[in-house]
Structures are given as structure tokens and as C-alpha cells.
Amino acid sequence: MTDAEYAAFRPTFPFENYDPNGDYPEMFDFCDRVEVGNVEAVANWLYPILKPQTVIDIGCATGLYLAPLKKRYGCEVFGIDGGRAEDGAGRHIAPEEFRRVDLRFPWASPKRYDLAICMEVAEHLPEYYADNLVDIVTLAGNSVLWSAAVPGQGGTYHVNERNYEYWEEKFFSRGFKLHEKHEEWRVAVQQLEVPPWSGWFRNHSRLFQRVTA
Q: Whole-model pTM?
């Protein structure tokens, strides 16, 4: 491993080599284009079943998944991401509802939310940071909607594609279990009207809940 590779792998301070190529604006635009068809469907299923009053999105990008939960259902929302607001991070939520956070470092949520969302974020961080990301998510929410790329999925800047069991074990070891509504979610998500390229969403998402809140 070269010195440059080591610095990117294990930075000494937040945001060091977080986006060395300056690609965040392009990635945010891409995410908005390909995921816009998911967000209303997710909100319209999640809220009636779980009825969260507070929701945090970890790795929120533009805040796209939070917007309908706030506007349609009146949820209190908050999003964190490594991207900068000036590049489009959190642009679908209010400035005070977004915070820039380097997900490679420990971060404690200021409160515990009813629902934490972390969709297709984990595969973008080296495996070294996997436990830290799951710590952030599980400390932030009583229920978790989680999705992460599986081996062979491929994608831009994917560096840690893992099978479902890998992530499930991390949640189980932190006092979580598959949500009592998980199977209902698995059935419902197959019926959601989402774009054909959103196969990852249909196949990979998992719904967890804290064993004791």
C-alpha cells in the first residue's frame, strides 16, 4: 500500500481524501435522477406502517428520501452526508436539517430517531469502516431501513460489496433483529412502482428494529 492509498484508507482527520476527485456534485445529480421514482413509494409505505415521527437519513446525499416524509407526513427529519452543501448535499431539506459528517469517523446522533435510513451507502466505504457505519446507524434509530450492495452488483466507487448475512450479523450483535414488519416490507417492496434499474432496492433492503428501545 502506497502512502497515498493508506491516507485514503485511514485518514487522520475528518474529510481528508473523502472526495479526492471532486465527484460529489455529479454523483448527487445521478442519484436524484435514478432514485426519484423510489422516494414517494418508500414514504407512502413506510409511514402508514411504522408511523415514525422523527427520521434520520445517514448518507442522505441530497435528502431525497427525507423530503416526502417531511412534506407529506410532517415528520421531523435530519440528514447527514460526507458531501458539501454547496455541492448539493441536503438540497431537498432545510439547511438546519443537514449536517456534513465524515462517516469514516465515530459520530453520535444528538437524539435517537424513530427511524434511521441508510440506503446504498455501506459499499462506498472500505471494509475497515463497516463497523463504524453500523454503530452510527444503530445508535441513531430504533428502527432501521438498510440497503447495501451485494457481491457482483457493481457500481460507481463500490469498494465493499457484501452479502446480506454479513450486515445482518452486525445488526444482531448490536441488539437489533429483523423488524416484525420485515416480511410485510419484503412483499410490499416487490409491488412498489419503482424504476426497472432499482433492482437493488427490491432485493437488498432490510428492515430492522431494536430489541429493546
A: 0.90
